[in-house]
Structures are given as C-alpha cells and as structure tokens.
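If you are new to this repository, start here. Below is one unmodified record pulled from the training split, so you can see the exact layout before writing a loader.
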Amino acid sequence: MKAVAWGCLAGIGVGMILLCMISALMAAGKLPVWAGDAIGLVAGCVMAAAAAMVCARVSGQNGFFLGMGCAAILFVGCLLCALATGQQPDFWALIRLFSMLLCGCIFGSIGVNLRFRRA
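And here is the target side for that same chain:
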C-alpha cells in the first residue's frame, strides 16, 4: 500500500507540473486548443508511467500489477475530475484508460527490473 501511495503521489506531482506547462503554452498561443484531447492522452500516459516507475522502485516486486493499479487509480481520479467539471465520458475516455493501463504495466515492469551499476 505504501508503494502505491508514493507512486500515485509522484504521478499526481508529475501531472500537475505537466498540465501547468501545457496550460501556459496554450495561454501563450503556442499550442492549439483543438489538440486538447491528444495532449490530455499524452499527459495521462506520462502520469501513469511516472507513478508506475516510482511504485515499482519503492516496492521492488510485482511491478506489472502495481503499475496497473497506480494507473487505474490515476485514471479514476482524472475521470472524477472530468465528471465534476461537467464533461461526459466518451470514446477518448476508453482510449485514455487502456493507454494509461498499458503505460502503467510497461513502466512498472521496467521499474522492477531496473538495476543501477556501481562504479
């Protein structure tokens, strides 16, 4: 549980930084507003990857399943925030779910198997 909590906190932190940078770029006119869905998909995947990596490094085992769990928790949080702002779930939500779960599984597995070399 502790590893999942640390992973989700890391994913939320990365997501906050990433979304602040994206919103600043959109406000400056450097990013088109119509690309919001694709940018949100990439942001969700980066959040899930960061959460899974931290969770797997803290846990040291079961990276695939813990990464999937962190990604699912982050997706539910993002979905609840979207529902609270009045958006309706659509096909993009399903695509975001599967891509976040895939990134969580992949980076959780990488995080468990990552070894650092000592000089």
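Two things worth knowing about this chain: The chain has a mean pLDDT of 90. DSSP finds four helices and no strands in the chain.
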